[in-house]
From TrEMBL:
<feature type="region of interest" description="Disordered">
    <location>
        <begin position="74"/>
        <end position="94"/>
    </location>
</feature>
<dbReference type="InterPro" id="IPR009660">
    <property type="entry name" value="Phage_A500_Gp15"/>
</dbReference>
<dbReference type="Pfam" id="PF06854">
    <property type="entry name" value="Phage_Gp15"/>
</dbReference>
<protein>
    <recommendedName>
        <fullName>Bacteriophage Gp15 protein</fullName>
    </recommendedName>
</protein>
Length: 197
């Protein structure tokens, strides 16, 4: 397992030079959420490999290379794999974040909280994830994620109606619904990547 505080962030992964910027990983997670068929999965893998790896990968090595890419996306350690797939298991639960739908909020939150311009700055994926997880709840993104994940079942009617209205206002598109809720953004990312692992 890589130690974010003491180790240098990798620019090589499992023996291959990589582009460690957050953009290829965000691209992967956006498309992973929208894959509907095995054919879509095959196209996703074929498109993801050249975005992540600096040197060309022979097609015969794509499955192994994609598994390597997924391990990088998840953070590289067995602890991350153990946390995947946890959540309520209720198919009615919805995800609380989507990199495409929430792109403006993510860019704004990084600028507001850290002074990082994600439209211009390169940010290592692991650093990006750490900063995303630590965003202050006062940012618009923090508030929206809290609203989407709010359990209204134990609330009185007035509070429940209020939060349900907000949940509807900030809901992700129907095509992304029906995915079990995960407790953290990391678990959210890992659960979608597990579909290919």
């Amino acid at each position: 397992m890589h130690d974010l505080l003491t180790d240098t962030l990798p620019t090589e992964w499992e023996g291959r030079a990589i582009d460690p910027d957050f953009r290829p990983m965000a691209w992967l997670l956006i498309r992973t959420r929208r894959v509907k068929t095995n054919e879509d999965s095959a196209r996703l893998i074929a498109s993801a490999i050249p975005l992540f790896f600096v040197e060309p990968i022979p097609v015969a090595q794509y499955p192994e290379a994609f598994e390597s890419l997924v391990r990088f996306c998840q953070g590289g350690g067995p602890e991350d794999e153990e946390r995947t797939g946890t959540g309520s298991g209720d198919p009615q639960d919805e995800p609380v974040l989507d990199y495409r739908c929430d792109a403006d909020y993510i860019v704004g939150a990084f600028q507001q909280a850290y002074g990082i311009d994600l439209t211009a700055d390169k940010v290592h994926w692991w650093r990006f994830k750490a900063l995303l997880h630590a965003l202050p709840p006062e940012t618009p993104l923090g508030k929206i994620v809290e609203i989407r994940g709010k359990d209204t079942s134990g609330m009185d009617r007035a509070d429940r109606d209020y939060y349900e209205t907000l949940k509807e206002r900030f809901a992700l598109p129907d095509g992304l619904k029906g995915v079990k809720r995960n407790e953290t953004l990391q678990e959210h990312e890992d659960a979608f990547l597990d579909r290919f692992g």
